[in-house]
Amino acid sequence: MPPLTYLRIHHYQEGPMTSRLRLLPLLALLSLTTCVRNPATGKRMLSLVSQQDEIALGKQSAEEVRGSIGLIQEPKVQEYVARVGLPMAKASERPELPWTVQAVDDPVVNAFALPGGPVFVTRGLLTAMNSEAELASVLGHEIAHITARHSVEQLSQAQLAQAGLLLGSVLSEDVARFGGWPPLASNCCSSSTAATTSARRTNWASSTC
């Protein structure tokens, strides 16, 4: 029979590890139950962000764009880009979204889409265009990003990675404690991955340029 001291240590170390190992099937279940069918491709995709949250995020971000860059203060320009882009958006796989197509006063040649419906083109892009067909092509590309929920999938992957990182960090600390080793590698990995996740979160706006 093992010494009593061994039994006490073994029980103390096994408790936290066992309880945290139970989180593994929960994490796997989360990844399975949050897979939805992509409205544009028909394939299954990871989605931890609801359409309501997607729309709210897009509206908030669009307000920040309008406040920081500013819209072109020419009604005819705004009417033009909306006339070209909105019919395509309404004919897409997600016509129910609150679509907006606007031009921002930025000399850089660019166009970008935000989650949930907002699409922007810059003054620089409009100046560089030679025809309405070219503008329609660019706007169609940006609309496709939204209908395919690219930004939502990117955010969901980042959130799932964070959940996995948290679980891995906890388990690593338990393993290290059981073996008597300091969990330095886990901490380093945690900082690096967190920084990468943060960088990804700031890059969800789809851009053509």
Which helices and strands, and how do they pair?
Elements: H1 4-21, H2 23-33, E1 35-37, E2 44-46, H3 51-68, H4 75-90, E3 100-104, E4 111-113, E5 118-122, H5 123-128, H6 132-147, H7 150-179, H8 184-201, E6 206-207
Parallel strand pairs: 3-5
Antiparallel strand pairs: 1-2, 4-5, 4-6
Describe this structure in words.
- The protein has 209 residues and is an alpha+beta fold.
- It folds into two domains: 4-46 and 151-207, no CATH class; 51-142, 2-Layer Sandwich (Zincin-like), CATH 3.30.2010.
- The protein is 64% helix and 10% strand.
- It contains eight helices and six strands; from the N terminus they run ααββααβββααααβ.
- It has helices at 4-21, 23-33, 51-68, 75-90, 123-128, 132-147, 150-179, 184-201; strands at residues 35-37, 44-46, 100-104, 111-113, 118-122, 206-207.
- A four-stranded mixed sheet has the order 3-5-4-6, sandwiched between helices.
- A hairpin with a 6-residue loop joins strand 1 and strand 2 (44-46).
- Helix 2 (23-33) packs antiparallel against helix 7 (150-179) and helix 4 crosses helix 6.
- The longest helix is centred in the last third of the chain and has 30 residues, at 150-179.
- The chain is globular.
- The protein starts with a helix and ends with a strand.
